[in-house]
Amino acid sequence: MADRAVNDRQLKSEVVSLVQYIKRFREEIAQMVAADGKQTRFETMSDQLDAIVGATEDATQSILEHMETVDELVEKLRGADKAADREALCDQINEKTMAAIEACTFQDITGQRVTKIVRSMKFVEERVNVMIDLWGHDEINRLASEFAEDTKPEGDAALLNGPALKKEASISQDEIDKLFD
């Protein structure tokens, strides 16, 4: 009878531990997907990245348009006979050059958006680390190696890694340029 009481107590203890574990795990997941305003942190990161891409595209387009106009104005300047015409063309070139420089200020806003994303990613990383601690590192590593085998990209997807970071580059830009000389 005493053994049964010990086993019942152990079972109850294990069930209580399991309930607490599941509750804590749910809390961590809830924090990870909690709304930050009207959006989750993941939605906010996605919107910020979309905004970065859009701002970069807009700035690039604006710079290219202004520089094309400068090129056209320089050609007109070469053929201008009157000093007043040359002066007006130089003013237009100066105006378009300044507009192109202004378009380059997008990097400040881009930096602010990237900072927001990095903060959100750090928050998510902290939450994931807590869940890993709850689950156990050995179990996570075992599952990760299983999933890695099942999810290896194939075909073109295996080639799509994006541009390398400077620290990852195995060949310098100078070496690439030499290939085209």
Structural commentary:
- The protein is built from 6 helices and 2 strands.
- It is an all-alpha fold.
- It has helices at residues 2-33, 41-79, 83-103, 106-135, 137-150, 173-179, and strands at residues 35-36, 39-40.
- The chain is elongated and about 115 Å long.
- Helix 2 packs antiparallel against helix 3 (83-103).
- A two-stranded antiparallel sheet has the order 1-2.
List keywords for this structure.
two-stranded antiparallel sheet; elongated
Layout of helices and strands, plus pairs?
Blueprint: H1 2-33, E1 35-36, E2 39-40, H2 41-79, H3 83-103, H4 106-135, H5 137-150, H6 173-179
Antiparallel strand pairs: 1-2
Helix pairs in contact: 1-4, 2-3, 2-4
